């Protein structure tokens, strides 16, 4: 399948000193303490972007009463996130040519405008719905930078023994934001009470109250994004004065050459599909998790807690595994195999549990909670490990371009899934089968993938 390992010539550094002296370092490197501030600002922005993207799914029942949203409307609101990845090539070019500061400022500006647009308190429902959709689209346009720039930031600012950890923190905070929306939305926005016979007046008052609470959350998110935009505007350098490692100082391929090399590299395409299919399906599935769990008699609040713990568990476990990968290098494929095997078992368990009338398996709240949370933990925690393996496989292609391609593919899968959901939204049990199949498909690809560590080779052997 063309999955041969890289040659010695491909692992040669592109930037070498003009002459080598005994007992001298080939590249002058330095690590700055401010890297943690840079990582914190970026991670908080990624958290807010994920939180705004996943705002409507956890409160779909409340949104239906407040704004008249149907299940198709909720699917489209979630779909604006993947649609925002359409101009991803422009953002990757901006990051490659101008550095992270300018691309982050542009993305954060889109987030501010989107949060402001959807927060305009108009009384006319048709126009208000258009503004909400427009705000979600603008927030989606920030996705290419927020979801792709984590490995670029870690290589630019962090030494080799901290890179995987920094990548995990930067890339998983967007998922943590979507997890927070599972809690913030259902706890602040009350679920409609459809079980009681309400008069027309009391129902109208109830809908107005729900709409006011939704408005309160949107105002709070707008304020948080505006504060972070001001912080990035005041201080967020494009790169440190001195690079932290040999790999960070090395010359990279040009933008056009990088795209051509990625698209012609069968090993990269193989692992890119292994990443994009399960993560893309999980993103679409979790974005409408309340809709998925409603047939199982799970309330809006309980569905929010399930989504919260599955994502938070994945983030915590992902950081722990990234730290393990930093301490024991060259084990990325083994870690992914174990994670995807666990995801395949957990997703199969959850899918069969939801079909208890056919399988006669026990279906309790504890089983639904456990199986659903395990799916999120195993798949979400694999994201930073995948990203690090991408960089190692295709080095010296720039990190931002590589991760931009794979996150675009992941969002393409999410977009296709949500597109079909707008047409087949009455019975959503097929989503569970898609999740199970995606995990098994990814596991097979990883088993046949032959790993290589080109960037690690450069840092370990060339820097000595």
Automatic annotation (TrEMBL):
Keywords: Glycoprotein, Lysosome, Membrane, Transmembrane, Transmembrane helix, Transport. It is a multi-pass membrane protein. PANTHER family: MAJOR FACILITATOR SUPERFAMILY PROTEIN-RELATED (PTHR10924), SOLUTE CARRIER FAMILY 49 MEMBER 4 (PTHR10924:SF27). It is found in: Lysosome membrane. Mediates H(+)-dependent pyridoxine transport. This is Uncharacterized protein. GO terms for cellular component: lysosomal membrane. Coiled coil: none annotated. Belongs to the major facilitator superfamily. GO terms for molecular function: transmembrane transporter activity. InterPro entries: FLVCR1-2_SLC49-like (IPR049680), MFS (IPR011701), MFS_trans_sf (IPR036259), SLC49A4-like (IPR049604). It comes from Oreochromis aureus.
């Amino acid at each position: 399948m063309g999955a041969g390992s890289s040659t010695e010539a491909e692992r040669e550094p592109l930037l070498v000193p003009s002459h080598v002296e005994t007992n001298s370092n080939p590249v002058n490197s330095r690590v700055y303490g401010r890297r943690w501030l840079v990582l914190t600002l970026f991670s908080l922005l990624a958290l807010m972007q994920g939180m705004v993207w996943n705002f409507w799914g956890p409160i779909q029942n409340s949104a239906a009463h407040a704004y008249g949203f149907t299940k198709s409307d909720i699917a489209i609101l979630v779909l604006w996130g993947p649609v925002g990845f359409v101009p991803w090539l422009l953002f990757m070019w901006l990051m490659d040519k101008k550095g992270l500061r300018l691309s982050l400022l542009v993305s954060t500006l889109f987030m501010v405008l989107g949060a402001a647009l959807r927060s305009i308190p108009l009384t006319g429902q048709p126009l208000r719905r258009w503004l909400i959709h427009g705000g979600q689209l603008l927030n989606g346009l920030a996705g290419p930078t927020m979801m792709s720039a984590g490995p670029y930031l870690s290589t630019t600012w962090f030494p080799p023994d901290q890179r995987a950890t920094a990548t995990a923190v930067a890339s998983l905070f967007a998922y943590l934001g979507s997890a927070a929306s599972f809690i913030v939305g259902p706890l602040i926005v009350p679920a409609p009470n459809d079980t009681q016979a309400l008069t027309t007046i009391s129902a109208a008052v109830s809908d107005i109250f729900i709409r006011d609470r939704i408005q309160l959350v949107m105002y709070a998110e707008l304020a948080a994004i505006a504060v972070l935009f001001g912080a990035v505007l005041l201080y967020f350098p494009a790169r440190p004065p001195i690079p932290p490692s040999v790999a960070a100082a090395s010359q990279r391929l040009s933008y056009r050459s990088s795209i051509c090399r990625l698209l012609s590299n069968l090993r990269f395409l193989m692992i890119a599909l292994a990443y994009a299919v399960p993560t893309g399906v999980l993103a679409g599935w979790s974005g409408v998790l309340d809709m998925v769990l409603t047939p199982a008699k799970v309330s809006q609040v309980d569905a929010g807690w399930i989504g919260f713990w599955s994502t938070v568990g994945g983030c915590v476990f992902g950081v722990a595994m990234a730290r393990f990968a930093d301490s024991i290098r060259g084990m990325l494929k083994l870690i992914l195999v174990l994670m995807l095997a666990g995801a395949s078992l957990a997703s199969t368990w959850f899918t069969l549990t939801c079909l208890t009338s056919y399988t006669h398996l026990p279906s309790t709240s504890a089983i639904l909670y456990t199986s659903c949370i395990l799916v999120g933990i195993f798949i979400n925690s694999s994201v930073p490990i995948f990203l690090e393996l991408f960089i190692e496989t295709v080095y010296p292609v720039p990190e931002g371009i590589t991760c931009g391609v794979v996150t675009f593919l992941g969002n393409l899968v999410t977009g296709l899934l949500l597109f079909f959901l707008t047409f087949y939204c009455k019975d959503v049990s097929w989503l569970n089968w898609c999740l199970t199949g995606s995990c098994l498909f990814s596991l097979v690809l990883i088993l046949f993938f032959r790993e290589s560590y080109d960037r690690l080779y450069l840092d370990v052997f060339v820097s000595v």
